[in-house]
Automatic annotation (TrEMBL):
Residues 12-109 form the Yippee domain. Residues 105-128 are annotated as: Disordered. PANTHER family: PROTEIN YIPPEE-LIKE CG15309-RELATED. Keywords: Metal-binding, Zinc. The keyword Metal-binding applies. It comes from Rubroshorea leprosula. Pfam families: Yippee-Mis18. It comes from the Eukaryota. GO terms for molecular function: metal ion binding. This is Protein yippee-like. Belongs to the yippee family.
Length: 128
């Protein structure tokens, strides 16, 4: 596989709950109004230490999007998805941005989020 280069972030960070690899800064959150199978999800302007999976079209609450799952570069856990293309004009702000599932993260204070009510299917929400 080769040598793994990991970016370390400073400040209030979200990290992979499995291996504690840094993923995103609190200051890069665009929206906390997204939903996923396990509950809450956050839209980030920038994430690090992830690999991007295959692109696929998914119908979400706000319409059709081309997305790719994103995985922690260290442990391989799926941590969210990246918006590649938004097919609706009003959703173009999501392109190139990533959603991290809160259930898969450790928060800036070290806490984990445990969903009380699982949701069926991937979805997103409008909260910009």
């Amino acid at each position: 596989m080769g040598r793994l280069f990991v970016v370390y972030l400073e400040g209030r960070i979200y990290s992979c709950k499995h291996c504690k690899t840094h993923l995103a800064l609190y200051d890069d959150i665009i929206s906390k109004g997204f939903q996923c199978r396990h509950g809450k999800a956050y839209l980030f302007n920038k994430v690090v230490n992830v690999t991007v999976g295959e692109k696929e079209d998914r119908m979400m609450i706000t319409g059709m999007h081309t997305v790719a799952d994103i995985f922690c570069v260290c442990c391989g856990s799926i941590v969210g998805w990246k918006y590649e293309t938004a097919h609706e004009k009003s959703q173009k702000y999501k392109e190139g941005r990533s959603v991290l599932e809160r259930f898969k993260l450790s928060g800036p204070d070290g806490s984990n989020y445990w969903s009380q009510e699982p949701h069926v299917g991937s979805s997103d929400a409008d909260d910009v």
